[in-house]
């Protein structure tokens, strides 16, 4: 194994999107940011230099961070922010995972522009467990906003504090032209094909040779949007999600939530022409925001014209059956070399309800009119990092009494759930669909889980477990909990530390759809997590 060294200068960079040039926070001047390449078992050293006026952290989304929680990145969970002018070196080893992951800022809304791909190739000398592609490409799906990040932060915070519900927020924001203006568009690899006439923005073009196979490493980096992805005239063979191999299957449409990654093989079997590639939004029910699908082009070499074959069949926004069919097709590869280690017994059987509702509490810390919660606890981030508090045994920062019997009314709190090291967990995530028609993409840090069951309506503890897939369920780090439905996951708490779990829709995270697990080996915290690096930022 190797040591891979990267340097991230986080800086303000003038960026042109949708015909206007604005400063955006970028890494090394790039949007999307640089791709990190490594092999499984490599050590990564990423030196992050904060040259902007905002506090900053970087998260390595999906990296298990075995005993190295200090490098995980969520602000006030595993570290204090890197302050303007400061530097922090993220140092971690890639253990027992390979595939596509990504990195992003993990504080406020900074990840809107601070993100990039993290490509983990198999151990040296090991082939992929599928026919090797001739070449590979990273495809980052995102949203370009015709505004700068500070507008975004200001209006979101203002909207959350002053408006009483999301619809008023969206409507008033649309009236002001911010932040949900209709000229906004999805992007593919940072480029939005112009819906206006700026000739500088031609959209991303992917050149292919007829007869060759390409692996697309697709990442949904959008703040709040679940997406369908497809290429006109071609089907795609899915081989991996969230850096775990799956049983390959062919599909016309990929469904991907914020936080998720999908590797799929494109066979350039049409010989000639240009074909549109598109990312279009999914929402269980239509809402009054109208983004245009992002498009890019697959360009066969030798094709003269630039006109592309368009779609006759882009999925409608509320194509729930299509999204469900895609998710149901995902099964772990579960081969001899890559077995699915699904916990067959359960030490902790948990049910977390989640949702978004009106905040009944007039004097709450966050002060917003809406609150989101797991088990009616709307999470408040502490003033120092939870991992610090855990490691150095600082009391008063968090409680470890996350409610098994949730309170009847929503309340705020920094409450964690304690798991014995190596214990097994079954967690049912139940959406209560109070006021939003969205799936909740729930992301767990530090450990992958197996998605053993999924359904609409309320989870039935008598009936549903008998249908769980305990043989080859998909293993991942982010799962979409269907609107008004549930998902059951299982995992082994084999990574000591403090691990954040949250909705990967920024608008929900912002109002408290978060919690954390503390995993402790019982021999005292100093025995479990490695000591903090010397340059760890302090609060
Ligand atoms: Cu991709 Cu906690 O984040």
TrEMBL record:
Subcellular location(s) per record: Secreted, Extracellular space, Apoplast
GO molecular-function terms, A-Z: copper ion binding; hydroquinone:oxygen oxidoreductase activity
GO terms under cellular component: apoplast
Catalytic reactions on record: 4 hydroquinone + O2 = 4 benzosemiquinone + 2 H2O
Ranges of residues in domain Plastocyanin-like: 10-123, 164-302, 393-522
Record keywords: Apoplast, Copper, Glycoprotein, Lignin degradation, Metal-binding, Oxidoreductase, Repeat, Secreted
Cofactor: Cu cation
Documented EC number(s): 1.10.3.2
Any one Gene Ontology BP term: lignin catabolic process
Key word Ion transport present: no
Source organism, top-level taxon: Eukaryota
Record bears the keyword Oxidoreductase: yes
Comment on bound cofactor: Binds 4 Cu cations per monomer.
Family as reported in the entry's similarity comment: Belongs to the multicopper oxidase family.
Biological role stated in the UniProt entry: Lignin degradation and detoxification of lignin-derived products.
Annotated protein name in UniProt: Laccase
Upper lineage: Eukaryota, Viridiplantae, Streptophyta, Embryophyta, Tracheophyta
């Amino acid at each position: 194994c190797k040591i891979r060294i990267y340097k991230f200068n986080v800086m303000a960079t003038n960026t042109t999107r949708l015909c206007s040039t604005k400063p955006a926070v970028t890494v090394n001047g790039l949007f999307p940011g640089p791709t990190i390449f490594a092999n499984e078992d490599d050590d990564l050293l990423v030196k992050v230099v904060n040259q902007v006026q905002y506090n900053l952290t970087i998260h390595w989304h999906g990296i298990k961070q075995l005993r190295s929680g200090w490098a995980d990145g969520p602000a006030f969970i595993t570290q204090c922010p890197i302050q303007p002018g400061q530097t922090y070196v993220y140092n971690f080893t890639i253990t027992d995972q390979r595939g596509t992951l990504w990195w992003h800022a993990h504080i406020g809304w900074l990840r809107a522009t601070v993100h990039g791909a993290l490509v983990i190739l198999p151990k040296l000398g090991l082939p992929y467990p599928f026919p090797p592609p001739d070449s590979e490409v990273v495809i980052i799906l995102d949203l370009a906003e015709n505004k700068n990040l500070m507008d975004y932060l200001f209006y979101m915070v203002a909207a959350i504090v002053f408006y009483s519900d999301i619809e008023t927020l969206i409507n008033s924001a649309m009236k002001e032209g911010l932040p949900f203006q209709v000229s906004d568009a999805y992007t593919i690899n940072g480029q939005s094909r112009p819906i206006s006439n700026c000739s500088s923005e031609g959209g991303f073009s992917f050149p292919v040779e007829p007869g060759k196979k390409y692996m697309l490493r697709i990442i949904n980096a959008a703040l709040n949007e679940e997406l369908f992805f497809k290429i006109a005239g071609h089907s795609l063979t899915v081989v991996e999600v969230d850096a775990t191999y799956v049983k390959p299957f062919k599909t016309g449409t990929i469904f991907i939530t914020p936080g998720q990654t999908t590797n799929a093989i494109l066979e350039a079997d049409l010989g000639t022409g240009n074909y549109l590639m598109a990312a279009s939004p999914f929402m269980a029910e239509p809402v009054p925001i109208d983004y245009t699908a992002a498009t890019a082009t697959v360009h066969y070499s030798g094709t003269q014209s630039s006109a592309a074959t368009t779609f006759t069949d882009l999925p409608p926004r509320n194509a729930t059956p299509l999204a469900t069919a895609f998710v149901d097709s995902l099964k772990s590869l579960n081969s001899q070399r890559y077995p699915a280690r699904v916990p067959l017994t359960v030490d902790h059987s948990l049910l977390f309800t989640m949702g978004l509702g009106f905040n009944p509490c007039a004097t709450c810390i966050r002060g917003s009119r809406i609150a989101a919660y797991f088990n009616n606890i709307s999470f408040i981030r502490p003033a120092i990092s939870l991992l610090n508090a855990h490691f150095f045994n600082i009391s008063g920062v968090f409680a470890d009494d996350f409610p098994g019997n949730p309170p009847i009314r929503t309340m705020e709190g920094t409450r964690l759930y304690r798991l014995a090291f190596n214990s097994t967990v079954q967690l049912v995530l139940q959406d209560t669909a109070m006021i939003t028609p969205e799936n909740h993409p729930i992301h767990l840090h530090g450990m992958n889980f197996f998605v053993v069951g999924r359904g609409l309506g309320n989870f039935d503890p008598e009936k549903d477990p008998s249908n769980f897939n305990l043989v080859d369920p998909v293993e991942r780090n982010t799962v979409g909990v269907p609107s008004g439905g549930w998902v059951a996951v299982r995992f082994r708490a084999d990574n000591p530390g403090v691990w954040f779990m949250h909705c990967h829709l920024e608008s929900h995270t912002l109002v408290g759809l978060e919690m954390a697990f503390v995993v402790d080996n019982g021999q005292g915290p100093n025995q479990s997590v490695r000591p903090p690096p010397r340059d760890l930022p302090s609060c």
